[in-house]
Amino acid sequence: MENYVCTACGYVYNPAEGDLDAGIPAGTAFTDLPEDWVCPVCGAEKDEFEPEE
Prior knowledge:
The chain is mainly β. The chain is 0% helix and 15% strand. It is built from no helices and three strands. Strands 2-1-3 form a three-stranded antiparallel β-sheet, with no helix packed on it. The radius of gyration is 10 Å and the shape is globular.
């Protein structure tokens, strides 16, 4: 699974870790995140993330 980077603040979503504070379990792919999920650091929406290179 691929990491995704927030283009607004640089936060990296790592699917191996998930986002436990938002109730997203480890192993959740970025594409499987709910549409209303936002960056836990700056609040950017999913469309502001890009795959990490």
